[in-house]
Amino acid sequence: MHPYRSHTCAALRRADVGAQARLSGWVHRKRDHGGLLFVDLRDHFGLTQIVVDTDSPAFAVLERLRVESVVTVTGKVVARTADTVNANLPTGEIEVRAAEVEVRSAAEELPMPVAGEQDYPEDIRLKYRYLDLRREKVHANMMLRSAVIASLRRRMIEQGFTEFQTPILTASSPEGARDYLVPSRIHPGKFYALPQAPQMFKQLLMVAGFDKYFQIAPCFRDEDARADRSPGEFYQLDFEMSFVTQDDVFAAIEPVLGGVFDEFGKGRTVTQGAFPRIPYREAMLRYGSDKPDLRNPLTVTDVTDHFKGSGFGLFDRIASKGGVVRAIPAPGAGKLSRKFFDEMNEWARGEGHAGLGYINIKEGVPAGPIAKNHGEAPTAALVAALGLGPEDGVFFAAGKEGQATKLAGLARTRTAESLKLIEEDAFRLCWIVDFPMFEYDEEAKKVDFSHNPFSMPQGELEALESKDPLDILAWQYDIVCNGVELSSGAIRNHRPDIMYKAFEIAGYTREQVDADFSGMINAFKFGAPPHGGSAPGVDRIVMLLADEPNIREVIVFPMTQKAEDLMMNAPAPVTPKQLRELQIRLVEQAKP
Fold first, then answer.
1. Where is 72: in which H helix or E strand?
2. Helix axes 401-418 and 338-350, enclosed angle (nearest 10)
3. How many whole angstroms separate alpha carbon 293 and alpha carbon 285?
4. How many angstroms separate the CA atoms of 555 and 567, rounded?
5. Distance from CA of residue 323 to its chain's centroid?
6. Structure pTM?
7. How far is CA 10 from CA 140, 293, 344, in A?
8. What is the per-residue pLDDT for 175?
9. Are 431 and 475 in contact, with CB atoms under 8 Å apart?
10. 41 DSSP β-pair partners
11. What angle do CA 150, 156, 158 make, to 5 degrees?
């Protein structure tokens, strides 16, 4: 028999009764029932119940051991009695009567429990992540992650993509988020940067003549953490294709993502066929966000014209000064008390907005301050235009377009959640398309890129030369699932003349483009194919599939929100010798 195990802790069944077995694993739980000691033995695969009589030499060994000690147990497989069968456990019809126990590693007192799914402070969980990973749910999340990545890889290869690995040490780029810099020992005063994404390299692979590329790519950005964003590093399904239109990119990736959500969604409904395509401006109007959750049936309506020259002075003034008024329906809310509407108004103020106006319809009669001030006939016309029923409500977000749009989007979500309108057990995917190529930066008082500077403008060079920059759309697109952005992508700008012109509009000289993006712009001068791609975030896909609210729950060794690795004590000081080798001198921070 093998020195450690003949079976895993998930393998034994009723058919094995009478056989000798050897199992190795961790002591998960212990239960002393007087003359018998029961031990749940756990390994990567599952649990098996071990039973030990008091007269067995194994009893004294197991009794003194703490949970999470590692042992090897040898004994006979016996059937459980009918009243002790555990139908929830694959091995629940049997147990192993221990004859021998060998301690492989005795555990000290634990800083946190492993058995059970009780909450525990995150700093403790991350400091002792190797213990946290033993817990059933966290362990399952990591296995899900591995399976999702394997499925993504298989599906991409089946679609004719070839996997390449792009460099980790590269050059810093002035675009995008803040870089992580790596000092060079042999080139003092110079630095590498960890890639924020393999953007330039994957485009250069297309220039090099590889038709379809992909990789499960590590990316590094010095950004603050969010629930759906890990500080430091993350992984994405990075891919690029040559001689393609936007439609070709969509057709390639939709079955990959849709298939993964189908495969691992545990029966939840998934968008079938082609994903809906929503233009950016329509998304901002109808949903108040470019990351709409399509499980939410509510849509926002612009009602600015209803208040121009109306009896409601506040909204009239906003509309006459170029502001907007957006309406968010609340189906059935008329049956609720005024408290619901007042609480929504207070919530809006808590979000930093002036408030959230409303009309409350009861038995067909509109009520509330807006209905009272707006007038009976105009209110009736507004209610009819919105298609509201006799027991509905409606909220209003008013102000400058950006502010009103943001509040309308937040109110749409909160209203649907409060009224329990969000579709359950579903993954609703969509594309956001037709992003503006440029935007006006109020702080810098200049036109700048709004999304991705390397995207092809719709209309190409002619559009750049003849249109108002703020009216130019780009071949840019995002994939969104349940209100979470999975990726950004684009048909790339592969022509140097168009790229120089696009950057010129954003305030860059030809010399700056040559200096900052030399690798790409030089390559394009030697024949570049039209190409495009995208990069869905692996961590976010797994987070959605695992139904976890925080992305750290699906990353094996995540950092804290402050970008600290408590387990490995990183970041950490380095020795003076290391600094001298790099010719770096630390500058002491001024004391406040």
1. strand 70-79
2. 130
3. 14
4. 14
5. 33
6. 0.93
7. 14, 39, 51
8. 61
9. no
10. 27, 48
11. 100
Sequence letter at residue 489: G
pLDDT digits 0-9 by tens, 529-584: 999 999 999 999 999 999 999 999 999 999 999 999 999 999 999 999 999 999 99
Tokens of 167: 């460099």
Euclidean distance between CA atoms 26 and 270, whole angstroms? 38
If one counts every other C-beta atom within 10 angstroms of the C-beta of residue 543, the result is 24
Q: How far is CA 95 from CA 12, 19, 53, 73, 77, in A?
A: 9, 11, 13, 12, 6
Q: What is the DSSP string of 353-366?
A: SS--EEEEEETTEE
Amino acid at 297: P
Please tell me the distance from the alpha carbon of residue 422 to that of residue 562, in angstroms, as a whole number.
32
- List 182's β-bridge partners, or say none: 192
Interhelix angle 280-287/401-418, nearest 10 degrees: 60
Q: In the structure, what pLDDT confidence band is assigned to residue 33 with cuts at 50, 70 and 90?
A: confident
Report the candidate in 95, 454, 435 with the shortest Cα–Cα distance to residue 281.
435
Mean pLDDT of the chain: 95
Q: At what angle do helices 136-158 and 246-264 cross, to 10 degrees?
A: 140
Q: Please count the other Cβ atoms lying within 10 Å of the Cβ belonging to residue 588.
A: 6
Which residues sit opposite 74 in a β-bridge? 22, 100
**Helices within 81-135 (DSSP H only):** 122-127, 129-132
What's the one-letter identity of residue 413? T
CA separation for the pair 312, 304 (Å, rounded):
12
